[in-house]
Here is the input.
Amino acid sequence: MKPQPVLSVGANAKALRKDAQRERLLLFGLSFPALLIVLLVIVVPVGWLFWLSLFNDAGVLSTYNYSRMLESKSYLRIFKTTFNVSFLTTLICVLIGYPLAYFLSQISRRWAALGLIAVLLPFWTSLLVRTYAWLVVLQRKGLVNQWGIELGWWETPLRLVHNLNGTLIGMVHIMLPFLVLPLYGSMRSIDFDYIKAAANLGANPTKAFWYVFFPLSLPGLLAGITVVFVLCLGFFVTPAVLGGGKVIMVSMKIETLIDLFFNFGTASALGVVLLVLTLGVLFIAHKLVSLDKVLGSGDGV
Amino acid sequence: MGQEKALPIKIQGVTKTYGSIYALNDVDLDIHSGEFLTLLGPSGSGKTTLLMVLAGFNRPDCGSVRFGEREIIRMPPHKRDVGMVFQNYALFPHMDVAANIGFPLKLRGLAKEQIRPRVDEALATVQLEGYGARGVDQLSGGQKQRVALARAIVFNPRILLMDEPLSALDKKLRERMQIELRHLHEKLGMTTVYVTHDQREALTMSDRIAVINDGCLMQLDKPRAIYDQPANAFVANFIGESTLLPVDQNGGAPSFGGVALKLAQGSADGELLLLRPERLIFLDDDDRAEFNRFTGVVREVVYQGESFLVYITLAGGYEVAVRSVSQRHSIAAAPDVGDQVVLGLHRDETVLIEGSTDGGMD
Here is the structure.
C-alpha cells in the first residue's frame, strides 16, 4: 500500500480548494434573489399575520380569535365546506384526469403535446374571465340549459350555478391541469417494457394495469392530488363567483371579515389555521411519498 | 402444465413490414423441442422483431407460428405461457426480488405458501439464495440479470425467450454468464430462443444459429457449420474475420490467379474463396501437396497480445490477413514488412461461397 499523501500541502491544494469554494458561493449567489423575495413576501407577512391574530377586538393580547373559532359553529362549518369542496374537486379531477393523462401517455409524444396544450389552454386566459364565462354557460338560461331543454334531456332548467355544482364545475376546470401535468410526467417515465413483462408473465391488460402501471404512476398521482388539494384549500375567485354565496370557503370568509368588518384579528387567525391545516396536508403527503417527489417532477421510476 | 419440458416452434411465412421496409421477409424457421437456438444478426436485421412476434408483442402482417401443435399467431402475450428475459431486465421497481419472481405464480392463482418455496427454488437455481427481500435497485447488473432469469423460469415455461440479456454486462461477467446460461439450459431443458448481435456469444452458447439479415434468414445451422461453411458472403463476413477472393470457375475446375484450387469435399460451387486469418499458415517448403499456395508481400505486422496479425498483399493486389500465434519461440518466425512469403490453406479448409465480392459486405 502506498502511504496516503498529506492533502493540505500537495501541489495547488490551496488554489483548488479556493476554486471549489468560489463555485459554491456563486451557486448561492444565484439563488439569493429568490430567497430574499421568499423571506420578504412570505415569511415576514406570515409572521405579521400570526402576530395580528393574537390580539382581540380591543387590541389586547389574547387567544380570543382562536377560541372563538372552536366555539362558533359557523367557523367550523366554513372549514368543513372548504375541505368538502377541496376533496370533491380533487376527487373529480382524479376521475377525469387519470384517464386523460393515461391516454396522453400512451399516444405519440407529438399528439400528446397537442393534448397537453389543450389542457393548458385555459391558463392563457384570465381566471376571472374563465369563471364568468362559466357563469354565462351554466346559468338558468345559459347555453347548457338551453341545449339540454331543446334536445329534450330535461324540462326545467338545472341549477348548475350559484351553488356547490357551479363551484365544483369551475374549480375542476381550473385545477385539472395541476393534476394532469405531474401525472402525465410520471406515466411517461414508466418504461413500456414493464407492461410487456407483466403481460409476458401472464397478466391480462386489466391486471397489468393494476399490478404494475397504477403503482408506478402513484408518485405522480399523489403529487397531483397534493397540489390540487392544497390549491383548493385557499381558493377564492371561483367559489365566490360561481357559489352564489351559498358555498362559503375560508378565503371568502377572510375577505368578508376584512372588507366588511375590518376585523384583522379574526381574519389573521383564520389565515393561520388554514396555513397550519395546509401544512398538515403536505405533511401527510410527505409521509405517503417523499416530499421531493410530490414537489418535484413526480418521476415514477 | 403438460408432461414434456419443452415445445417445438414452427415459424412459417412470417412477414412484417413497416411502410416499404421488410422487418421480416417471409421467414420460415423450425426450432426443435429443447434446443438452444440463437437469432444472430446486426442491429436492424429483424432478429428482435422475430423474437417479439414469438412473445406476442409484435403483430406480423401474415404468417403462422406454432408452439407444438398449437397456432399462437393471434394469441395475446399473457396467454402464451413463454418465459422472457428482457434486454433491460424489466424488473418491477415497486416490488422486491421475491415479489418479482413470485409475480407470474400469483397471476396463476397460487397461494402464498405455494409461491414461497418455488421462489426460493428459482433463486437457488440462479445462485441468489437469500436475496428475496432485496429491493431491485439494490442489485448489481449481474444480479438483476439472474433475478430476471429466475422470474422467467419460475413458472416452468416450455419456451424461454431472451433478448440480448447479457449486453449490459461487462465482458468478464458476460463470458461467465454465457457458460452459466448454457448449463441452466441443459438442466431445465426448455426450448430457448436467444437473440444477440455478438457472434462469439452465439458460437459459444447455441445448439444452432439462425443468421438473419434484412429480415431474411441467411443460414440456419450448427455453430461449426456456420463458421466453417458459411452459406453466403454475408454470413462469411458477419461471423469471424474473413477475406473473400474472386475465383475463376473454368467450368467446374475453379482456380485463383491461374492456379487450380484443391477444394474441401462438397464445396465445388461458388464464386468466392473464403480466407480466414487463423486458417492460413506460412509455408516454407514446397512439398506439402495438400495445401493451396498463395504468394504475396508482407505489408504490415500488428502485435495483438495473443497473436500477430500479418497483412499481406497477394499477386493481383488482393489484401489478406494471417493470424499467427505469438509464442516466444515463434516470434522469430514472424515475417518483416516487405518480405516475400508463401501462404498455405489446407484443402479441407478451402471453401467456396456463392455471391460476389461486393455483395453482403458491411
